[in-house]
Specification:
heterodimer; A: 289 residues; mainly alpha; 14 helices; 0% strand; globular; B: 290 residues; alpha/beta; six-stranded mixed beta sheet; three-stranded antiparallel beta sheet; 9 helices
Chain lengths: 289, 290
Amino acid sequence: MAEPATYLEAVRETPLLQRAVAVGALSGLACALLSPFVVLRRMAFVGDGMAHAAFGGLGVGLFLFAGSTSEDPSVQGLTIAFCLVLAVLVARVSRRGGSGRISEDSAIGIAFSVSMALGALLITLRFRRDPQYSPQWEQYLFGNLLTVGESQVWITLGLTLAVVVVLLALFKELSFYTYDETLAELGGLPAGVLHYLFMLLLVLTVTLTARVIGVVLVSASLVLPGLAALAVSKRLGPALAWAGLLGVVSYEAGLYFSYAWRVPPGSAVILVQFCFVAVALTWAKLKRE
Amino acid sequence: MSAETPPTAAPQNATNSSAAPVIELRGVTFAYTRAAPVLEDVNFTVREGEFLGLIGPNGGGKTTLLKLVLGLLAPQTGTVSVLGRNPCTLGRERRLIGYVPQETSARRQFPATVSDVALMGTYGALGLFRSPGKAEQEAAREAISRVGLGGLEERQAHRLSGGQMQRLSIARALVSRPKLLLLDEPTSGLDTGGQSQLFELLERLKKEYALTVAMVSHDVTALAHYAGQLACLNKRLHWHDRTELITEEVLSRTYGCELDAFFIEHRRHLQEFHGDHAPAGHVHGPDCKH
């Protein structure tokens, strides 16, 4: 296993690793800041679904654009567009419950597992057509951080800034909306706008994070930091600060373990986050007693 | 359905009060699905300063009626008017309606202090991008002390008891200085002492804030005692004046079930004790198990 000093040395000398560290911190921050809201609004399943949708979008992009890779802006753009369409559908179903014959969670479950299936199908077809590229499933499913280009760093920075700005500007609205959607609407807040805005942030964050830790594990990082932060915080503001901190630390620690042990970054990040949750819950339990 | 029974124009509870109407429903019919209307030809008026109690079986349409008054639903036929306007188009003026919903576990898990929750009541009036300032803090502090939670401002909301939680919910609703207070089963989950404390509190707040109050509850006893007007809702509205006795017949017609033996026995006992005009406030509610 590489010593931390060796890792830092490597980061200093390799632009590739520097980009990985930057994108990791930004993705970790964006996910973690949204996670207390995801936990409190019980949207873990929606986050999970978004990640599956991202895989479907990736498949559609790779299939449609000949010779493309998952790094191309065209594929990225299409992935985001695909997720947005699904997000609007989900937002409509989840807003005041659908009255159709299919329950909300079934509808989401169907839509997203079909996306995943579509993604897997189209990626296979694409690589059968284009045999010089072989599908690197592991990269999509568990993260491919070491192929991040410079433009990706700027895109991730922009999206993370967007998350931070929206949360700061609409903190009171989003907190009331999270406390109780109906009460917020009756209080004169634009509950519908907040609902769709939150979905939009969730989609953008999931798609930008999927490349770091992979589509399978994205949804966990939308839940775990929030769970740990809520266990140790009395108010929502501090909970967001804690979540943000844990998010950044877990992504950076995960990247280090991934480098040191040559394991997928996604697994390392999620396991670090799980340790935080275990510690936070134990601490909260001891404090109660 | 409503074509066969045209809505009647006159309210079912014609009172001779000259106070301005706060809630007015005319021939309201509402259905979630076309086949089965939840509410049918409901007419009533609640005037300024009145206290309306709504009872009825589960599925009788009580919560639907509240949602119509809040403007969260619109009736298929008939009109709903709150403070002289259609509640669906009240927009920001909706905060003139204070709403105390049923307790939920989701709200209980939210990390906030008592003060934070009460402050939420000011958010609508503040508008976007503005944080609560001194005036809002002061309003929240006042509402908290008026509901008897003074000194607990920094307590975590989820550590409050059930009764305190309901008081906090009322404080949050009062911060925006509503003219109408709607409560959905505020006493469910409270013990008898907590229930009567809550009713006493409402009685006092009603005067202090010059409120009109409408409450949905299963607590027939307390409602009959505190509410000036009592209506039983089971798809249609059965109207009762406070002075009128709630007879077993009326309740069993509304609830659609036989009342428990204790209730009937208890009424007979009360009537013997008080004569024929036993105060309605002493009547015990039915315990329906369908």
